[in-house]
Amino acid sequence: MEQYVIKGGKPLYGTVRVQGAKNSALPILAATLLVEGIHEIRDVPHLSDIDVMGRILKALGVRMRWDGNNIKLETSTIKTSRIPESLMRQMRSSIFLMGPMLSRLHEVIITPPGGCAIGARPIDLHLKGLSLLGAKIEEGDGFIRCTATKLRGADIHLDLPSVGATENIMMAAVRAEGITVIRNAAREPEIADLESFLNRMGADVSGAGTPTVVIRGVPRLHSVSYEVIPDRIVAGTLAAAAAMTGGEILLTHVVMDHMGSTLELLERTGAILKFEGDSLWVKGSSQLKAVGNVVTGPYPGFPTDMQPQLMALLSVTAGSSNISERIFDGRFKHVKELVRMGAKLHPLKNSVEIEGVSHLHGATVQATDLRAGAALVIAGLAAHGTTRVLGLHHIDRGYDHLDRTLLQLGGQIQRWSGKVASC
Ligand code: EPU
């Protein structure tokens, strides 16, 4: 069984460039479907989620080619409006294809999307938004068919600031007739990145990053070359690893403005941070402190995607902290695994009480979702002894060769495939 074998206890040192953002690249790749032509999306990380998106695009008829970290897509050749069920089930982000396909092909047929097991993840807000734009939605036995001869601008209030629903509606609305206003929109940096991409294509979108996004429909778009923003969660994960191992690292290709709440918490633990240009220098401390209460929230709140990694870090700080999870109802599966490594964690209903210990110890642990996996890896780097992290397919969804990145920083980590070479 594939696993990371980590010999812990060695501080991380060195410099690493942060990969492009998965959660920007996925909707942007979907948005290329909006218009015929040859697009180039740059700084795309090599991840299994990106691979699934690529396979879906190819199944729809798109021609796609990787060149290093750039992807060239020829989107004139789409031949179907049905997304294959087997691929749809592999990744929740396949839902992003609805908006662009509806806009371009006037029809899209999907099956309910899959994704990380982090709680109930309905798509009602996506469907509500598309239907307010004029789409007819039919739900049958295991499929959802959306059709619209014409999409028209609408005033859409989201009950929750859903990242995906905001993005899907933005993409559907760019070529709709009239003006669309999304109220209570999500404000994540990836929404602003999608806005920049759409505007570069000739769309008229404003307000991303605020709770009100306004999309003025335009008749035509054109293909573009575009570079996605750096991944703030990968940067946060590596910064937490440096703090936790008492190391000192320099992360390049970072946008500080995107990382406010994560950096604030790292500083509260006693880690030392310095920013210069697009570089973040992080230095750990042998005496990290607890931080009191932390609550995850929509951006600019503390990101749920950093919650497991922060919990790993707080497990070895002096004193007690508490983390409440407010975005997903099933995102504490790493708790049991961290406890195997010696963490003192007491789960309550939607929160976990963390009693810091002097150190964790190595154990065999199971990654149950992407960020839980990342938390176990950084815990393993700081722990005494050897940690084996199983379930690497979860980690591969969001971290581009995490083992290589950590090796570059002096981490003792090896990807073990369990296969013995035959002579
Ligand atoms: N929700 C609904 N109905 C909907 C949509 C969402 O009730 O129609 C609820 C969800 O169940 C959840 C909350 O709204 O409780 C927020 O979900 P949101 O739609 O914002 O999340 P998402 O778009 O599915 C994106 C990221 C996630 C990240 C969340 C929150 C991508 C591809 N995924 O998911 O990233 O956790 O926003 O920030 O952008 C990750 O990278 O590890 C990851 C899970």
Word description of this protein:
There is one protein chain. The protein is globular and about 65 Å long. It contains 14 helices and 23 strands. The chain has a 4-stranded mixed β-sheet with strand order 21-22-1-23. α10 runs parallel beside α12. The chain is an alpha+beta fold and 423 residues long. Helix content is 30%, strand content 24%. A hairpin with a 4-residue loop joins β7 and β8. The protein folds into 2 domains: 206 residues, UDP-n-acetylglucosamine1-carboxyvinyl-transferase, Chain; 206 residues, UDP-n-acetylglucosamine1-carboxyvinyl-transferase, Chain. The model has no long low-confidence stretch (mean pLDDT 95). The site of uridine-diphosphate-2(N-acetylglucosaminyl) butyric acid (EPU) has 26 residues, from α1, α5, α6 and α12. The site of uridine-diphosphate-2(N-acetylglucosaminyl) butyric acid has 26 residues, from α1, α5, α6 and α12. This is UDP-N-acetylglucosamine 1-carboxyvinyltransferase. Pfam families: EPSP_synthase. Keywords: Cell cycle, Cell division, Cell shape, Cell wall biogenesis/degradation, Cytoplasm, Peptidoglycan synthesis, Pyruvate, Transferase. GO terms for molecular function: UDP-N-acetylglucosamine 1-carboxyvinyltransferase activity. One of its GO terms (biological process) is cell division.
